[in-house]
Model the fold of this input.
Amino acid sequence: MMILAENEGFFSQLMGICQKLSEGFGATLLIFFLTLLFALPLGLVIAAGRMSKFKPLSTLVKLYISIVRGTPLMLQLLVVMFGPFYLFGMKISQDYRFYAVIIGFSLNYAAYFAEIYRSGIQAVPVGQYEACEILGYSRAQRFFKVVFPQMVKNIIPSVTNEVITLVKDTSLAFAIAYTEMFTVAKQVAAAQATIMPLFVAGLFYYVFNFVVAFVMELLEKKMNYFR
Amino acid sequence: MKLLEVKNVRKSFDDLEVLKDISLDVSEGQVVSILGPSGSGKSTFLRCLSMLETVDGGSISYCGKPAVTDAKYVGKAALKEIKSYFSLVFQSFNLFPHYTVMKNICDAPVHVMKRDKEEVRKDGEVLLKKMGLDSKADHYPYQLSGGQQQRVAIARALNMKPKMLFFDEPTSALDPELTAEILKVLKELAEEKMTMVIVTHEIAFARSISDHVVFMDGGVIVEQGAPADVIDNPSNDRTRAFLKKLEQ
Done:
């Protein structure tokens, strides 16, 4: 009887943890999808700037990428969160915390995506450009018809890596006290004096990434119609 | 009628002068072969003619319309018009890997020349049949042999309805069996009086197909004339040495 009761306590505790983490998981999902929504296209713009023949622009973009890649995302989040107040004396509303998370993540991931895009674009053989030239394609046609589809195929493995990292990086939002799953897990762990919530959070991330890897693999297969 | 007139073309890469004062005329229906050792500048010459490289000196005109005059290129619109007079077939095919054979052939005529989609497709079907590839319309380039890919590339060039065609070593990436396929296609085009300039290492083929043979070495045209003269009775030492090397 004792053992059963103990087990019941364990399960109800576990269920309680899962329920609390699920609430935070919504915020994690939101960060994840909004970051991808903004960073994926923004990366393309940054890549275009990085590869621009206009030297001042490409140098500026290179500097931007270098800073973003060379400093911790956690620090960048703090700068986005508190920069407007400390640097410009702007009044920060409570809502801004969420915006800061999305802005910080998007600016950071866009820089990484930009470099991935650049590698994918540069992997398109020069002969493809020459064929476009001979056939009379405009620059826009060349990019959207010929370069972009081949770039997408080239970069899927690298993008998968980056997206998986993003899943785990969402936990950094705690740095500016935005409540996502990991923040909840730490709070529950502290309140109940157990590390179980952290293990459960780890499991959540793992399952999430399992799904991400699965979806990306499907995408990779879908792009296998050409070589 | 002269389709192409080239006068005193020069081209350098940094300090290396690749083309030194090249002049050449090509008339309608003429087949011109350009022979010469590696590094003689023949591919660079073809790339200058097809505007993939810019010349540093000299003039080029198509159908009497100047494209370059003393290294000065005409305006964008005029150049675009002139570029539609010719097409180029590459050594490495350069098909679009993500397009089917049919789309490779039809995309540019529809989206660049703005021709009617159905009409272009019908032309494409005729061309594929001619190339013996009518069963491959829905295949992707990687599913084809090198010879088949090159035939698709030729069909792609022809579907742009150019007045003349350039070939940059069209068989150099192919083994002998596949080379024969391509040479057969070129021969048919020659019989149809397609104007062609062909950079090639296939001497026997050049002799049988060409009206005019040009031998280049060291960035200059060393010798040119009828194939029987240049290939069988070369008067220049360098031509003789080159041909002799090939025989061995």
Summary: The two ends of chain B are 40 Å apart (CA to CA). Residues 68 and 159 of chain B are 26 Å apart (CA to CA). The longest strand of chain B covers residues 2-13.
